[in-house]
Amino acid sequence: MGQKKAVVIKGDGTGPELVNSMIDVLNSCNSTIELIPVEAGSEFWEKNKTNSYISNEVWKLLSESDACFKGPTTTVPDPNAPRSVAVSIRQKFELYANIRPIKTYKTSQLDLDFVCVRESTEGLYAGIEFRTSDDSAVAIRKITRKGCERVVKKAFELCKELHFKKIFVITKRNILKETDGIFVSAVETIKKDFNSIDTEEYYIDNVTQQLVKNPQRFNNSILLSTNLFMDIISECASGHVGSIGNVYSGNYGDKYAMFEPAHGSAPKYAGQNKVNPVATICSAAWMEEYLGERDISQAIFKATEDVINENKYVTYDLGGNASLSQMAEQISQRASRYLKK
After folding, report:
1. DSSP three-state, residue 208
2. Are 117 and 222 in contact (CB under 8 A)?
3. How many separate helices (H) and strands (E) can be counted in the chain?
4. What confidence score (pLDDT) does residue 311 get?
5. How far apart are CA 248 and CA 75, in angstroms?
6. CA distance 17 to 324
7. Domains with residue ranges and CATH for the chain
8. DSSP code, position 245
9. What integer pLDDT is reported at residue 88 of this predicted model?
10. R_g of the chain, CA atoms, integer Å
11. Nearest to 86 by CA among 250, 239, 311
12. How many CA atoms lie within 13 A of 335 on its CB side?
């Protein structure tokens, strides 16, 4: 097999400096993956006055790569602005499963370990909305059996791989009877092939309360839901991990994957060498595993855990005073040492 290729979208706001720190970490670990840096996002769009956040040239590179990494990008909340970079790539490559681990470090007051699995190609994010008058608009929540079954199967497979025993299925089926009915039906169908895994349905309002009040009840389980619901739930859960700057994610399809930090572009901090690089670096570590460099992935995760638990070289959001580059350099040095042992 030839050298693996990954397109790296530098992103907006703090994206470029975060991505540069991530590339430095991978280089220090002697990764053999060919990284192809490109521009995409709102800053590219505003500069070039195109009809998309992603150019035709970048789409071509994406289609020729084995995976991609997306730095944080800005999505302009304007009806005339393009669809977000993340949604566009998810839908183009059918990356139907967005996966976000929620795992605390020793510095946290809580001990949490569960995973959020989100359907990421349809629901309200399908982008089907229109004005019915000057004063009203309609958005369509598109739910299909195919879309549900493939993400549900991924959740069950992940649950089995992690040796978890339970999946919490999050809906609002008492109100959204048809759309969430299809989702729950898909769970019941796929569950027949995974007899050792239990499921329990929770309504989204109750889950949100439980995540604030008693998040430990979800330990060693999968939280599974449709697109918008799980976007909100995983963001709520992220509040327990010390900082959204710690939360990494992967978007998986059958033949392609995109990796990204869970947080936004934070343009007010751009160029200040200030923000937390953990989510960016750990998302890249996950990409390393996906592309076959598991030893590098494990070394980066272990180094990151050490740096956070030591609590000496951490950024402001984790209670420290280290810069972005200082924290990234510590992760880089330790990961490199682990690989040499």
Report:
1. helix
2. yes
3. 11, 12
4. 94
5. 19
6. 8
7. 1-96+256-341 (3.40.718.10), 109-240 (3.40.718.10)
8. G
9. 96
10. 20
11. 250
12. 30
Please, which contacts does 188-195 make with residues 24 or more away whose CB atoms are closer than 8 Å?
A: 189/149, 189/152, 190/149, 190/152, 190/153, 190/156, 191/156, 193/156, 194/156, 194/159, 194/160
String of DSSP letters for 120-168: -SSBGGG--EEEEETTEEEE--B--HHHHHHHHHHHHHHHHHTT--EEE
pLDDT at 80: 85
Report the pLDDT value the prediction gives residue 1, as an integer from 0 to 100.
57
Written as six digits, the tokens of 118 are 């989100």
Q: What global pTM score does this model have?
A: 0.95
CA proximity to 307, closest of 273, 340, 272, 282: 282
Whole-number Å distance between alpha carbons of 329 and 326: 5
Query: By C-alpha distance, which of 229, 73, 10, 253 is closest to 146?
Result: 253
Q: 3-class SS at 267?
A: helix
| Low-confidence residues in the chain, pLDDT < 50 | none
The neighbouring-strand residues paired with 137 are 131
